[in-house]
Design brief:
Distance between the termini of chain B: 41 Å
Order of helices and strands of chain A: HHEEEEEHEE
Mean pLDDT of chain A: 84
CATH topology of the largest domain in chain A: mini-chromosome maintenance (MCM) complex, domain 2
Shape of chain B: globular
CATH architecture of chain B: Orthogonal Bundle
Radius of gyration of chain A: 24 Å
Number of domains of chain A: 2
Strand content of chain A: 25-35%
Oligomer: heterodimer
CATH class of the largest domain in chain A: Mainly Beta
Helix content of chain A: 25-40%
Strand content of chain B: under 5%
Low-confidence stretches of chain B: none
Number of domains of chain B: 1
Chain lengths: 129, 170
């Protein structure tokens, strides 16, 4: 078996190595382009249509926002954000977990809180639901 | 009543035999579970590559097209999206094989051809998916997954084809 493998490796032609190399480079290059998810810089918190504020993502802090039905706790942990406490019944916002990419959003509908990661510019002019 | 007789020559027998092997391999592959939907090893391409080197391009063209049609009828995807994906993939593979089959020789072997065919296959499929089945740019996020699988299976199929060719099967 080992003899056969070594025999096989010796028989590999130079052009084949070139082709394999070209395709590996092509795959790597396209993967790096296509899987380049932009990171955001700021966190924008809204309550209804009202802006609560924008915060830098490069910090470790907890924000408490007062909504119509209670207090929602948002945790910023150097680049990623989650809602950790919410007075809503279904807790979808908490179950969504951490978000860390540009234009990702967590929404808590009962408490009218939306938390989104923004960069210097947004992909969309507006979103409504 | 006139009786038309189709004369069957050795070329037809050759195509039929090769197509039969390719169909059998495709059907076996269809029933094998795949960890990622859509990622398949494409073992029938071993036969196509073998044919293109051992015989000629037009035999390979026949074998490939017959395989696509018959397999889709057997597994029940005929004229469905899967069938058109398969057909486009095969046509693109054949097109690139036709363009590059001349490189097989001193410096390049069937391994290169196999990789070219595998990549041509996903290029064709992505084009048809992008312009017809899922007209959205989001599908290109999946491209690296398919490229990595094309790299692996193209290489493996090429190696198998080369060892098959070195056996001097008639």
């Amino acid at each position: 078996m080992i003899k056969k493998i070594s025999q096989f490796i010796r028989k590999i032609q130079i052009g084949d190595l070139l082709t394999i190399f070209v395709f590996i480079v092509l795959t790597g290059y396209l993967s790096s382009i296509l899987w380049n998810f932009p990171q955001g810089e700021y966190l924008k918190i809204q309550m209804g249509a009202q802006d609560i504020g924008s915060f830098s993502l490069n910090q470790n802090s907890t924000k408490i926002i007062e909504g119509p039905i209670g207090k929602t706790e948002v945790i910023i942990n150097s680049g990623k954000v989650r809602i950790s406490k919410s007075p809503c019944t279904k807790k979808y916002c908490i179950h969504q977990g951490w978000i860390n990419q540009l234009n990702q959003t967590i929404v808590c509908v009962p408490n009218q809180i939306s938390v989104s990661i923004i960069g210097n510019q947004s992909d969309y002019d507006s979103l409504n639901y | 009543m006139t009786l038309s007789i189709i004369k069957i020559n050795s070329q037809d027998h050759k195509v039929a035999k090769l197509a039969a092997i390719a169909i059998a391999l495709s059907v076996i592959e269809f029933f094998l579970p795949s960890p990622i939907p859509g990622v398949k090893p494409g073992i029938a391409n071993i036969i196509i590559l073998f044919t293109i080197i051992k015989f000629d391009f037009f035999t390979a063209l026949w074998v490939s097209i017959i395989r696509v049609f018959v397999v889709s009828i057997i597994v029940g995807t005929f004229l469905g999206p899967t069938f058109f994906l398969s057909l486009t993939g095969s046509v693109f593979s054949l097109l690139f094989l036709f363009l590059f089959k001349g490189i097989n020789g001193k410096y390049f072997s069937v391994i290169s051809l196999s990789l070219i065919a595998a990549f041509a296959h996903i290029i064709g499929q992505f084009l048809i998916v992008r312009f017809w089945i899922i007209p959205h740019d989001g599908i290109f996020y999946l491209l690296p997954v398919f490229m990595i699988s094309a790299l692996i299976f193209g290489l493996v199929n090429g190696i198998i084809t080369r060892s098959l060719l070195s056996l001097n099967i008639k």
